[in-house]
Give the backbone structure.
Amino acid sequence: MKITLSQLPVGVDGTIVEINAPHELRERLYGMGFIKGQRVKTIRRAPLRDPVVYLIKGSEISLREELSSKIVIESRFFSLDLAIPGEYVVDSLVGGRRFLEKMRFIGISKGSRIRVVKSLSRGKYIRINNNDVFIPYRQAMRIVVEELPNE
Amino acid sequence: MSNSHSYNKAEEIGTVVPSKYTSVALLGNPNVGKTSLFNALTGARQYVANWPGVTIEKRVGTMFYGDRAFRIIDLPGTYTLGATSIDEKVARDYLIYESPDLVVVVTDAMNLERSLYLLLQVLELRGNVILAINSIDEAKKAGIKIDSKELSKHLGIPVVLTSAFTGEGIGNLKEAMLKISRSGIHVHYLFPERIEKLISKLSSSLKLKKELENFDTRWLSIKLLERDEEVLKLTGIDPGADYSADIANSRYEFIKELLKDSYRDSEKHYWDLNTAIDHVVTHKYLGILVFFAIMYLVFQVTYSFAEPFTTLIEIGFNALGAFVDKSVPIPWLASLLSDGVIGGVGAVITFVPSIFILFLSLGILEETGYLPRAAFVIDRVMYSMKLSGRSFMSMLLGFGCNVSSIMSTRTISEPQERIVTILVSPFISCSARLPVYIMISSVFFGKAAGLAIFSLYVFSVLFTFASALLFNKLLFKGKPSPMIMELPRYRKPTIRSLMLYTWNRGKHFLEKAGTIILAASIVIWVLSYFPTGNILTSFASILGKSLEPLFRPLGFTWQMVTALIFGGAAKEVIVSSLSTLYGASSLPGNPGLATLASQITPPVAFGFLIFVLLYFPCFATIAAIKNESGSWKYVWITVLYGLGIAYLLALITRLIGGAFL
């Protein structure tokens, strides 16, 4: 799915599709290796979440969200809050033990298959193990899913 | 292009005439070890200056090799030869308009693909280029194999593998420089056909323009296709569509082909230690802890380590001054020498320990690679003031001394941000202002003295932030610097490069700022000595008395106004001036200051402290601002803005205070 670089979860990589940055910054981004078709990986977030370090062409570059939100990438992995209705596999959960436990309670853990039924601005209705569950936006942001190809 | 002097001619010169220098530009991405390579080539024969009109450092050095003398210029680190940032513009303008005899493009063996992008841009522009692939020692350790002969064959230029750290390949680089300076080659690599077609079409129309005959039309065409604003303006041609993405892609395609036969990456994971360190220093909680610990350390080292030396220097100069005062029979001359000259030189020299220690610690932080991490950790906080993490440390240092603060802005890479940081630094309450706060607060605020001083510090921080926002808006239309920053690998700094870093910048400060501080000290001496030799009837006092009506709305006495004038020498001088003018020693609670207490009210006193915090900074700070911003314009902004806002806020303080008390 197409998402912005700023939405790419930590530890996940994707391919650059489009760079919508202003012209004067685009030159520099090219020089640093941000070009169409290039793979880029999110390495880590700053303690206050912004900026974020990305790995590109073997070097680590820190970008603020202001700019990384203008770079479009194609990635099979993204957080659940971005998912459109369809089939997904949970890739990882970002959070502490309490969050993991809460998710396990409703049947979500690494590798579980879920189906997004309905997408609302405040969260997602998903179907898991034949149960319908509502996942609020805040929690959905912390669930990294992998897109399953349509059979 | 080829400036090949014959062998005989070069021998004829014998002693080298500056114009016979072969000029060499070093160009490369930031963090590729370009400056270390520069140090390895030039040794101590180098100096640091600023590029005219901008705040970017210019390093120039000399190298003698074979029958040649080379003048080496270390251009600012850059990723492209666009003209969108000042670093890039300085580098590019130098290559285009100064046209050095040869260019050494320094690249990183650990990250060759990315750093070759810049090389291609240089090859589009000119010939006589050497490729130096640096950090070859690290690459070897990591198991990376680079075939320099193969690369050289494909590129058509000399390729040298170097390590500035171990010294490997430096001799080969010198040899290559000597060789190419006698030959002169210009090669072109080709873009895909459809772009080449566009280039040749544009080229032929550019060739018709007479005013462009000094430029390479092929290069101009490429830049036009990239929609380079300067070239669009220069040529007056608009090719329409933007091909910059296409061109960037083709360059990387070319690099990929190039490296296919000549570069082999290893399977070994050489990134591990680096990742481990980063895991700690940029960690959510630990990272912030490490950050503040290191900041505290820098602050302590700069001021505490320097203090004994500073005190020693002060004692030495005081003793020398007293000795001269006694031994010179003519009173005014004795006073000029002891108070003006020796006092002034002393004022400059007292900065030496802290400035040198400051640069040493900055050098360590910069060369190891921690500085970008620190900026990364704190960036979000500074971004709310439209600054970046880079400026935090400078501001912190300001609590010790505004001069150190301004000098440390050398580590800020974005010129716009650097200017804003320089402009707001004087509002950070430096340690020299503390004695003034203590003296006035103890006289006027009794038990609340601590609170008064604390509130001044809080006010100082808030005012600095507000001014940063204001200056950003007024001078740069509120556009924050983008902070696209590379986090380089951690490196072990060499003692030599640290010494050169410290010495060059420290010396530069002494030469440039020292002159201004010395001159200002003598002016202050003249004001305080003439015409009568008594401070109470001196020009300064006359000036204070005549300016007093202007300060009447604030409630200041003429003694206070005079003390403020002397405060230009150094803020703590206000304390001694007030004591002298009120005829007493500087001990708080003495009878002289009782007179002051009877003359003004506590709100006026607090207004005075606000005024002391905000009005024009001391001469040393002004000298640093001039030196670092490269322009008197920013000095005027500082002085006028400071004075205006100090007056306004002192007045408001008096009015509000008066209403409550």
Remarks:
- Chain A has two domains: 2-75, 78-147.
- Chain A touches chain B at residues 19, 23-33, 35-38, 44, 46-51, 53, 57-64, 66-67 (CB under 8 Å).
